[in-house]
Amino acid sequence: LMQAQWEQRSVAQERAAHARRLERILGGSWGILSLLDEKLERFYVSPSVTAVLGYPREEYLAIRYEDLVHPEDLPRLRESLAEVTARQGAAQTLLVRARKASGDWAWLELQLTNLLHDLDAAALVVHARDVTQAKEQQEILRKERLRLANVLLGTGAGMWEWEIPTGRLAVDERWAELLGHTRHELEPVSLETWERLTHPDDLIQAWGRVQEHLAGRAEYYEAEFRMRHKGGHWVWILSRGRVVDRTADGQPLHMFGTHIDISARKASESAERLFATVMDHARNEIYVFDADTLRFVHCNRAAQENLGYRSEELAALSPLELKPEISPEDFQAILHPLRTGEKDFVRFETVHRRKDGSTYPVEVYLSYHGPTHHFVAVINDITEMRRREEERERLEAQLRQSQKLEAVGRLAGGIAHDFNNMLSVILGTAELAMAEVEPESNLYNALAEISSAAQRSAQLTRQLLAFSRRQLIRPQILNLNDHISGQEKMFRRLLGEDVEIRMELRAGLWPVFVDPSQVDQILANLLVNARDAIEGVGKIVIQTDNVRLDEDRIGEAPPAKAGDYVLLAVSDTGVGMDPEILDHIFEPFFTTKEVGKGTGLGLATVYGIVRQNGGLIRVYSEPGVGSTFKIYLPRHPGAQEEAEPQEASEGPLTGTETLLLVEDEEQILELAARFLRSAGYRVLTAETPSKALEIARTHPGPLDLLVTDVVMPELNGRELQEELQRIRPGVPTLFLSGYTSDILAQRGVLGDQVQYLQKPFTPRTLARKIREILDQRPS
User: Fold this and answer.
1) What is the C-alpha to C-alpha distance for residues 126 and 112, in angstroms, rounded to an integer?
2) pTM of the model as a whole
3) Which of 761, 713, 704, 758 is CA-nearest to residue 733?
């Protein structure tokens, strides 16, 4: 609004300046010069109107031109006025009859010229001369040229006059200045001068426009072309002109015209074309909308394609119609700091609504262009970015869950050694005490309860180690279908009569490499949980299949990798679980069962076994729908191995051989030595590896077996074994440890040929293992 007011004031000031200048220049002329605004209303008339037509100026300005012009000439005049006002720079000449103040008719030659200066102050120049008498015609023509020249002085145009028969070209000082010259530098000016200065690529079309006008096929001449500046560059010129004098037979004699420098306009047009080209080839959506109306004035091709609108459809819309999440008030608040100059741009995220009603998330960069009073919006479609963010959040949640479970697993592995040592002492002491008490006594029963509790505690330790993926296992190539089918009767007894169990085992199932006892642990835990989740009658389905998992389906689940897997799925029709419970089901000691009905280690054990075997587990559950646990075990390329033979019946546990027992836990050392001596063995004991090596050097008799803990001060069990072999070659070794399998692997103990006994153990278990090793020695 302020810009419009400023322009109106500028127009009024410019018109007043024109009027004052014309008042001085044209005050006493015989011709009539009128200035009409865009409504074809006269706002200026030269003083000569009184002399020519007899009207006072004020009276003439109040008379409509329709009341002055002869009715027969009105249609032609109206047509000419419409054509001239329709285009900047247009001009026409015509003859009309005008009524004088006396009532007589006078023939007037009217020259209509549409001149626009930079402030858009419309000035339709109407120059009239009385051609009633031929004697007046030449003088009127001269004065017309003079007056027009003075009017054009304020427009910055250069004037030229071409004497067509001779080719002489007369130019004013401004014409020369447009090209960086003085008029004196260009003299003598001729048609050849113009041709020499005009760009060769533009000369033909410009000369063609001249010829069209000279031949009468165009009412005036107009052309745009480049002319060489004195500085060596090219200047864009808008040239306009018309023939002002002809012979009796119509041959042109004189042509009068103007030159206007339009280089800035051409540069602007070029920039606009470049801008439009860049916009249409940009992958981002780009919008330009009016700062007042908030209507689109330009939308690039990407915007049209993404939104599903045609260009003309978008022109009828505003940004608010694309942004369903933003209210008009909020949108104005976004625009305000741009209008005031507080910010160069603003960034925000919203959603865009397509023509079909669908929406998609976008990132908007909005800026304001003050000179043109427009906002420019550059839009990024962030659908893929949002998807990646959601996927990253999902993977991060998986990683956090994995890290949490891993931390608990490390904690379980860390306490295993001390816990197993204590259990070994409890079990061993209870067993030895029971051997000295009558089975019928109350003390015997109490010791049996102590032993039973210790055994259950040992089982709890094994479950923790299974969760932490650190228990010692003996994997073999296995066909899950065969193994599951062999356990079906046991499953049915486990589930009871109210729960239907159905097997969906795929034929041609790939083999896996896994400890069969671990498969039993997995199925037992899953089936018991499924049975407990079913209220009354229900169904459980055990399913196997061959599947291939790519990187996307694997996600963040190390150590699993993309490849072939064997699926083991257990589904139930139970009560299901909500998302909050699903986030915790694999955590140790987390349970939804009543107190005393669950330890919370079942699914933790399953999780540990699956991860230990390089697989992954997925859970799908909804309240009221049921649950499905899908376990993926890596495919093994080999064939199924034969089942291991059953162990032979237990033989005698006594012996007379010499044993070197090394254990840094004093209670275990004393307990094991006491039992082994009672079984007939000669036992040499050492609390440290250095003492054990000293005994090996100094003992005069044979050493038949080294029984040693793995992790000890000074040397570990493997290092002790290696040192002992240098002193006593060929002595076998039995390793004992309460640590988990990963710790033993780091110590270099685990391997196919290593004899190992996991703590906790009973004295009889130790004696059995020792007898087994000694009996395997070569004779």
Assistant:
1) 5
2) 0.36
3) 704
